[in-house]
Design goal:
mainly beta; Rossmann fold; Neuraminidase; 5-stranded antiparallel β-sheet; 5-stranded mixed β-sheet; disordered N terminus
Length: 390
């Protein structure tokens, strides 16, 4: 094995290795002051699956950390609806003024329509997009091999979509949620594959000699940033989906991993150990050699993820013998650890307030404002490396 490849694997393997499984639990992080919760009464939801839809919405709105829903009760707002075999018509009213906030019809039945209604309520009463309709992809070793799984963000409908009996790693959704890229050893080597979610079709996308890993879709879905070692050291490249020539982004003596795009698509954040231990850097996505070192105050930082609003970069920090989640504020140029009970592999939801992360083989939803984490119960063991549709 070449020294450069061996060095890269020393950086990569800790992120691929899961610790022993532990039971789901509430992760109590540092408490901070938050704004009062918005009170929303739910019901009645009449018609087909009305009671089930109510329960789903209660869970969805509670998970926002900004709304306190009450079944059949009243509050600042009142949500009612009527469900048929084809759709759910939902109505939200300001309980204080009686004014109708919105009346919308959401296609589908049951869970799908309930999530969409909950997201519309969240947007209307908090000003932030809801994430109840978001989907998760993650790696799990429930079968003894690290396979790729999908699930709803509340943990429902978890299922494996690969059955290759080899290591899969680093899944990444396209920004429109229609595709997944990930690393697989299906060929015997680390290559990047792209799956079309609707059809299930899988394409071996990047298979240069050496390492192909850590894919990340550009916001417009036309390119993938990833790590390639085809020219020696593991470096960051941008590879267009039309199979035109890759663009080299970094040129260092170290190993660069885990690129993540800015929402404006003109920059990439990634981890590099060029200075001895993994640190975070930002470079142009056009191949310009200039870079910006993000000083976090932590000596070991990996797996950055740029928030959809462009304001934050979440990352994994190794503190002593454990991993924690940190967030870098790009405006203030400061970083802060936001977990105390462990965590890694952070992935932003579309509201740029919540993160999904892994800890001890389970996935959690973290509110970065209140610092409280909720377990995502999927009934799947050995979970890691989540990614979320935006």
């Amino acid at each position: 094995m070449k020294p450069s490849i061996a060095r890269f694997l020393l950086v990569l393997l800790p992120l691929l290795t899961l610790l022993g499984p532990a039971g789901p639990r509430l992760e109590a992080q540092v408490n901070v002051n938050v704004s009062p919760l918005v009170q929303v009464g739910i019901g009645p939801i009449n018609g087909l699956q009305g009671n089930a839809i109510t329960q789903i919405m209660l869970g969805d709105l509670t998970r926002t950390g900004m709304i306190s829903p009450v079944a059949g009760g009243t509050g600042d707002y009142l949500a009612t609806g009527n469900a048929t075999e084809e759709s759910l018509t939902g109505r939200l009213v300001n309980a204080k003024t009686g004014a109708e906030v919105f009346r919308k019809t959401f296609p589908g039945t049951g869970r799908t329509a309930a999530h969409e209604f909950a997201d519309a309520i969240t947007q209307a009463v908090t000003g932030l997009p809801g994430f109840a309709s978001s989907k998760l992809a993650f790696i799990a070793n429930a079968t003894g091999s690290k396979e790729l799984y999908l699930a709803d963000i509340d943990g429902a409908h978890a299922r494996a979509i690969t059955h290759d009996n080899v290591i899969c790693a680093s899944p990444a959704y396209s920004w429109d949620g229609t595709k997944l890229a990930y690393t697989s050893y299906k060929s015997g080597y680390p290559d990047v594959y792209v799956i079309d979610i609707a059809s299930g079709n899988r394409n071996r996308f990047a298979y240069f000699p050496g390492i192909n890993s850590g894919p990340s879709f550009s916001p417009d879905g036309s390119k993938i940033a990833l790590t390639l070692s085809k020219d020696g050291n593991p470096e960051i490249y941008v590879l267009p989906l039309d199979n035109s020539a890759p663009i080299r982004i970094t040129r260092t003596r170290g190993s660069e991993t885990s690129p993540s795009w800015s929402p404006t698509a003109d920059q990439l954040v990634y981890s590099s150990d060029d200075r001895g231990s993994p640190q975070l850097f930002i470079s142009s996505s056009q191949g310009v050699s200039e870079w910006d070192h993000l000083v976090t105050g932590d000596s070991y930082c990996t797996k950055p993820d740029w928030s959809p609003d462009g304001k934050w970069i979440a990352f994994t920090a190794r503190i002593g013998g454990s991993f924690q989640i940190g967030v870098f504020d790009l405006a203030k140029r400061t970083a802060e650890l936001i977990t105390t009970s462990g965590g890694q592999d952070p992935a932003w939801t579309r509201d740029s307030r919540h993160l999904v992360y892994s800890n001890d083989g389970h996935l959690y939803l973290l509110d970065t404002v209140s610092r409280q984490s909720l377990p995502i119960d999927m009934g799947v063991a050995g979970c890691s490396e989540p990614t979320v549709t935006r």
